Amino acid sequence: MSGFELRNGQWWCDQIAVDALADEYGTPLYVYSRARIEENYRRLQYAFKALTPRIHFSVKSNSNGAILRVLRELGSGFDVVSAGEAYRVLRAGAVPASIVFAGVGKTESELAFALEHHLGWINVESVQELEVLNRLANERNAKPQVALRINPQIEADTHHHMNTGGHRSKFGLDVDDARSVLLQAGQYLNLDIAGLHVHIGSQLANTVETVAALQRVLELATLHPIRNLDIGGGFPVPYRPDDELPDPSVFAEAVQQVLQTHPSTPLRSAHAVSPPEAGRRTGWDARFEIAIEPGRSIVADAGVLVATVQYIKVRASRRIVVCDASMAELIRPALYDAYHHIVPVKDTKPSTLVADIVGPVCETGDTLGADRELAEVARGDRLLIMNAGAYGMSMASNYNSRPRPAEVLVEGRYHHQIRRRETWADLVRLEE
Ligand code: LLP
Question: Is the domain of 13 the same as that of 128?
């Protein structure tokens, strides 16, 4: 087991005491375990082994260049949603063909970037975007691989901000629009429309909606030859100690089941007369490739945010523990009411307090944990805010003119700073 562990009364990241890192770099501080990222990646690979998918790490969950390089070295591709993310990934040494570019509002200059850098797939989310991309490709004599992102009109069982497949969601093409595009795919002379993409949400609580969404998408795959089926990410992570959520292997099995049993898999119709590519896969007889786009399930539990207790006060018999991390460094609790487990870095005493753990930002919503059972803590004690590796630093801001924290990557007994703490000068650097 790699990652964060309580040993001898304090929390360690692999072979380094978190407290020592906080001494060296100060707080608030993001700390990541390389070994845990690798373990999570391999666990997903193993869970999906029967489908041998291409794995595209979802860069929005953590876009630090060092983390992207770790994933590239593992053989991962990347899912990006802006040219900025694509830029980061290319800078981290990714092969352009391993990049999938999705996003509901790609600008013309972003699409041009994708064409000029020959990104692997462009996942298109509207009919107008298809037309624009076709024109831009024609102007550049290009013919990119295009996947249609489908909005299957299925509501995932998750927080409404993380639901991307419902009736009111802005994402993807409606099934009817996708159907007419596929039936007239030849009309887009400069687009190689050969993929379908579906992602119904993040932190999915079960596989029911995923299965329903895939069934809907697979029906479309009978209309036009499809080489790639991208089933998105969303594999959940337990944030609470008692969370019970399906393992990625449960999703893998459900997906496999749909592919095996769907009466109209693309192969049977589109490739019915082509010779079977025997032995390429085990378990099912599909000839299109599967792709997945995990973010959270790879990095969430590989990262923590470390904070220092500044003040403690008692109000109406409640403890308020004010620490130096806030919604600016980790916005998930404020934005989604998300739960992040919080423990003292030196964790020797029983949890006897009930406390609100808050940050210094001038917003009532700046609460990192409400009504938490916590051991008695004092000024200067350090806290570990767990499962902060995904959508932590990537969503951090400078609100209240707070310099963003440093990030450190632990590799066994070694560690290095992968992003330095911002300074006050950084805050004003771009101002005229
Ligand atoms: N693919 C697409 C098209 C997506 O929109 C997302 C996430 C992913 C993959 C990766 O999903 P994951 O495996 O990480 O669940 N900020 C929120 C999460 C927003 C997710 C947006 N899309 C949070 O902090 O929970």
Answer: no
Summarize pLDDT for 120-169 with one digit per residue, the tens. Answer: 999 999 999 999 999 999 999 999 999 999 999 887 777 776 667 666 78
Tokens of 95: 């092969």
Q: How far is the CA of 382 from the centre of ligand 1 (A)?
A: 30
Ligand 1 site, residue 230, Cβ cutoff 6 A: no
Following DSSP, what letter does each residue of 206-269 receive, concatenated? -SHHHHHHHHHHHHHTTSS--SEEE---------STT-----HHHHHHHHHHHHHH-TT-HHHH
307 occurs within a structural domain: yes
pLDDT in tens, 64-81: 999 999 999 999 999 999
Based on the fold, state whether residues 266 and 178 are members of the same structural domain: yes
Domain count, the chain: 2
CATH code of the domain containing 389: 2.40.37.10
- Ligand 1 centroid to Cα of residue 58, in Å, is 7
User: Does the predicted model carry a pTM greater than 0.85?
Assistant: yes
Q: Are residues 129 and 265 in the same domain?
A: yes
